[in-house]
């Protein structure tokens, strides 16, 4: 298996950090923009897209700040994806920071996917 490449993205979002956190950390919030449906049992989240299911283990979260998952298929690796809220101390601008991994030839595709999903999130939140 090829090594995956870590990439990070930043999306400015005009919304309160506490509201944004609800949408990135709860099954009901994530099913509004990330997947068609999201269920959680303990530390495992099941993401459902058009009938296919992917399971991820919750690696950690810090209330109001970030949430981190590892796909069950990647359990024996260091790969993860993290959604983190960053607030500029001076301007108070809010950004959603995304860290993810993809194989070299799939990084652009991964970034496009995140672009589309965060665009959906912004629509749900009424942010521009």
TrEMBL record:
Species this protein is from: Marixanthomonas spongiae
Top-rank taxon: Bacteria
Residue intervals of the START-like domain: 1-126
Protein name, UniProt field: START-like domain-containing protein
Organism placement in taxonomy: Bacteria, Pseudomonadati, Bacteroidota, Flavobacteriia, Flavobacteriales
A Pfam family per the record: START_2
């Amino acid at each position: 298996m090829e090594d995956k490449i870590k990439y990070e993205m930043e999306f400015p979002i005009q919304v309160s950090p506490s509201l944004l956190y609800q949408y990135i950390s709860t099954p009901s919030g994530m099913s509004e923009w990330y997947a068609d449906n999201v269920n959680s049992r303990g530390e495992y989240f099941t993401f459902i897209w058009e009938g296919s299911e992917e399971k991820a283990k919750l690696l950690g979260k810090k209330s109001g700040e970030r949430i981190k998952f590892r796909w069950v298929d990647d359990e024996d690796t260091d790969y993860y994806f993290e959604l983190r809220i960053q607030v500029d101390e001076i301007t108070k601008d809010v950004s959603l920071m995304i860290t993810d991994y993809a194989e070299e030839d799939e990084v652009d595709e991964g970034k496009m996917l995140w672009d589309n999903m965060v665009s959906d999130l912004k629509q749900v939140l009424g942010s521009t």
